[in-house]
Amino acid sequence: MSAVLAEPNDDRNLPIARADGSAILAVISRAASDPNTDVDKMERLMAMYERLQAKQAEADFAAALAEMQDELPSIGERGNAAGRYTYALWEDINAAIKPILKRYGFALSFRTDPSDGIAVTGILSHRNGHKAETTIKLPPDTSGNKPQVQAVASSVSYGKRYTAGALLNLTSHGEDDDAFAAADPKAAEWVRKAEAVNSHEDYAALRAEMVKSYGAVAKIPPKVREAFNKAAAETKPKD
Q1: Alpha helices of the chain — where are they, by DSSP H?
Q2: Count of CB atoms within 10 A of residue 97's CB?
């Protein structure tokens, strides 16, 4: 059924039988070719079209982000804050997530503002136009008697780690947790199975079995998630 648009006398008289951006665009195109078209009506039609496009872009962003979650890895914590705690290095996070972001149509960028402390804004953009962002404001990291430039760079690096983690729901794990098998034999067994697959068909079947065994993707341990992500990458058919 074709979309029906009322004569746009005002915004309340714009019923749409089917909220279809392409249909509205066709109406706009016809109106633009008519020299008698009221400019005010054209502007309202354009505003409606832009709202529909924005809503569709937001929906595409949310769907792609949800689908991507299962592939995002848990990052090893190679950074060490003078023995006080460990953390994932930004270079490790970036290397791990960039190919996955690209595959799902995302790009991650940052904006910094040193005018009042050090504000780092992470911006997650999707190829269909929608984006999300979050900001953290930090003081210069002067720990360890860092010189001023290094103190600023350290805070910027922390800001990137923090905002990327917030936007993507990233997790990290200690590098010295290889003994997890003793504490979680079920996870160790799934890791072993994932490491043994040699075809993408076997991987897909095994992954479905593994997800079923845990009941939900959110319950899958980081080590198991990493092993299956690695198996997926290694067995993925070449283009």
Answers
A1: 21-32, 39-68, 90-103, 148-168, 180-183, 185-196, 200-214, 222-235
A2: 20
Q: What local confidence, expressed as pLDDT, does residue 220 receive?
A: 86
Write the pLDDT tens digit of every residue in 60-79. Answer: 999 999 999 888 888 888 88
Contact (CB, 8 A) for 197 and 97: no
The residues with which 124 forms a beta bridge, in sequence order, are 108, 132
Q: Which residues of the chain have pLDDT under 70?
A: 1-28, 31-32, 37, 83-84, 174-184, 239
Residues 6+ apart with CB under 8 A from 82: 143, 144
For residue 97, the one-letter residue type is: I
| pLDDT for res 183 | 53
Please enumerate in sequence order all residues whose Cβ is within 8 A of that of 2, keeping only pairs 6 or more positions apart, or say none: 17, 23
For 9, residues 6+ apart whose C-beta sits below 8 A from its C-beta are 41
Between CA 136 and CA 156 the distance in angstroms is 10
Residue range 84-98, pLDDT digits in tens: 678 889 999 999 999
The residue behind tokens 């503002």 is 113
Residue 34's Cβ-side half-sphere holds a number of Cα atoms within 13 Å equal to 12
Give the side-chain half-sphere CA count within 13 A for 166: 15
